[in-house]
Prior knowledge:
single chain, mainly alpha, 2 domains, globular
Amino acid sequence: xKNKIHVxxxxxxxxxxxxxxxxxxxxxxxxxxxxxxxxAIISESSNFNVWNYYxxxxxxxxxxxxxxxxxxxxxxxxxxxxxxxxxxxxxxKKESITAKSEFVDEYKDNISIDIDFPEEKCxxxxxxxxxxxxxxxxxxxxxxxxWYRESxxxxxxxxxxxxxxxxxxxxxxxxxxxxEIFKQTxxxxxxxxxxxxxxxxxxxxxEYPEINLTYTWFDxxxxxxxxxxxxxxxxxxxxxxxxxxxxxxxxxWEEYSGAKKYGTYPIFLKVLEREVDNM
Length: 279
């Protein structure tokens, strides 16, 4: 499928070159047929590749603004890719709404105070984070919860170079963050998380079952185990436990209710509750 993405990009490059050297150039019938075939390729693609189509076409959308016809072509393909991903995402949300609602109802009462986290700040980029999380089949609420804990949902590049998700093996040495860089940090976070999960699952057994988080489904054990893996963990029975439990549980149970910052788990629940309420 990556080759198909490259074919699309190459097609646009070639057409753009012809238009650049000759304003009178127009697409032939074969080229129009090839263009239309791109929609068929997009429609048959995985969610991840549809998102990549959209991202690549968004860049061409800006580059081709000087040519009305090619700008329109790139815009139509870009909008088609986004519309397709959005429709799939809405179906997934609708199908999972009951399970998510039941999850929130079961666990939210353990939050020890009325959480007043910076919701507007943490959900300002919700659609972008949700799209990337959906494309990667990863829970959006977890992406936002970790973002909150690591940088209070900051839209900036911390001076240590580890990015807003504080991934220590990454270096984001830019003077200021851009939307493109921010999107990359989200993708890097999910890739990093999945590698940790895969590494753990390769050693899973009956006592420590696999973690199987998806965009539409998760359980308490999987969520806590994942968060423990992200921040540091140890094996102590039936689930992965955090080396620093406050990272997960601050303001979730009474014994963790003295911190200045909320834990990732109560924030996860609050974002999940917001998703349920906005369906």
